[in-house]
Amino acid sequence: MAQITPNHTLAVYGWAALDSSGKIVPYTFKRRENGVKDVTIKILYCGICHTDLHFARNDWGNTTYPVVPGHEITGVVTKVGSDVKGFKEGDRVGVGYLAASCLHCEYCKTDQENYCEKLQSTSNGVFWDGSITYGGYSKLLVADYRYVVHIPENLPMDAAAPLLCAGITVFNPLKDHGLVTSPGKKIGVVGLGGLGHVAVKFAKAFGHHVTVISTSPSKEAEAKQRLGAHDFILSSNVNQMQAAVRSLDFILDTVSGEHALLPILELLKVKGTLFIVGAPDKPFELPAFPLIFGKRSVKGGIIGGIKETQEMLDYCGKHNITCDIELITPDRVNEAMERLDKNDVRYRFVIDIASNSNNHPFI
Ligand SMILES: NC(=O)c1ccc[n+]([C@@H]2O[C@H](COP(=O)([O-])OP(=O)(O)OC[C@H]3O[C@@H](n4cnc5c(N)ncnc54)[C@H](OP(=O)(O)O)[C@@H]3O)[C@@H](O)[C@H]2O)c1
Ligand SMILES: [Zn+2]
Ligand SMILES: [Zn+2]
Fold first, then answer.
1. For residue 215, which atom of ligand 1 is closest to its CA?
2. How far from chain centre, in Å, is Cα 306?
3. Does any ligand 1 atom lie closer than 6 A to the CB of residue 258?
4. What is the DSSP string of 13-56?
5. What are phi and psi for residue 219, nearest 5 degrees?
6. What is the pLDDT of residues 176-192, one digit of tens each?
7. How much is the pTM?
8. Partner residues linked to 67 by β-bridges
9. What is the pLDDT of residues 229-256, one digit of tens each?
10. 326 CB under 6 A from ligand 1?
């Protein structure tokens, strides 16, 4: 696979993992020149999604090294191609997981390009020109404008960055199941991490009763007081799990690691839905009994389309929804990845890409 093409002439400073140790080191690489449908973006902030960690360590066996992670990107447009519509220099913009799709299939034509068979990601993907995509742990991005969104003026660029992946990934299933406009349902969120904490905020904002199902006792007070969850279940506590059997209409599973589905399925009412967005590297065991005795469904989904990403951001602008972040300088990315691995983040690390770090040779 070609890493670059002759059109890749822009030298960019960034940070990459070179092998499956996942260690992130400074890395200079080339991006394509701004094409007629491209915008060039000076990156300001980039969230650290758990997917970055999966990619950096080759958890899913599909990483092409060097990998420049990052797909929760906010920044400012510095250049606009002649065929670009809707963007101008100086615009505050965001780029998420989507870098390219075929533009012609039934999914691309119906604003579901996230389900295009030719979907390519912003990091560790292969762009139309055959080059490997390098993500947002870098100073500059060149993106096709059809995969770029506007960040509402009132949202801070750092706390908005994780909305580009974590936000849309949990907004989409809630919207798909009619939960944006029909309040009063009982919603469960499994795993209170980057995705999970935004899911709690959305489910609350949409007027639902929200239960967090977590492995971390230390998150109970925060879940309730800071994020506004109504209930908290410690998944290792059999009594608490038992008391909640058949109580929830819809559960969003955001867990990154191996875990059992059986006890989670039992929390669903009859005809309830378990929607999986977390992506553990090992297959789940799917027990038949909680499905057949409860007519329950198990589904999954990946992010959301671009149009809906804009809709989600506009909703966040209107209702002042942002992420709870820990802002770090680029020289602390490895420390942040270690902490993310140990489930020690409240609730998303965001890299201040444009910051000056004394320890960093490139800045
Ligand atoms: N489908 C998509 O489009 C999409 C988009 C983005 C990310 N993802 C995937 O979604 C997953 C979550 O991403 P994230 O950035 O939110 O990660 P994260 O911040 O690390 O949060 C994951 C949470 O899951 C819980 N958890 C972790 N390991 C667990 C285990 N073995 N058993 C039970 N609970 C566990 C923890 O919450 P508690 O402490 O509360 O238990 C943790 O905070 C990752 O696999 C990521 O690749 C998918
Ligand atoms: Zn992500
Ligand atoms: Zn397509």
1. 41
2. 13
3. yes
4. EEEEE-STT--EEEEEEEEE---TTEEEEEEEEEE--HHHHHHH
5. -90, -5
6. 999 999 999 999 999 99
7. 0.96
8. 17
9. 999 999 999 999 999 999 999 999 999 9
10. no
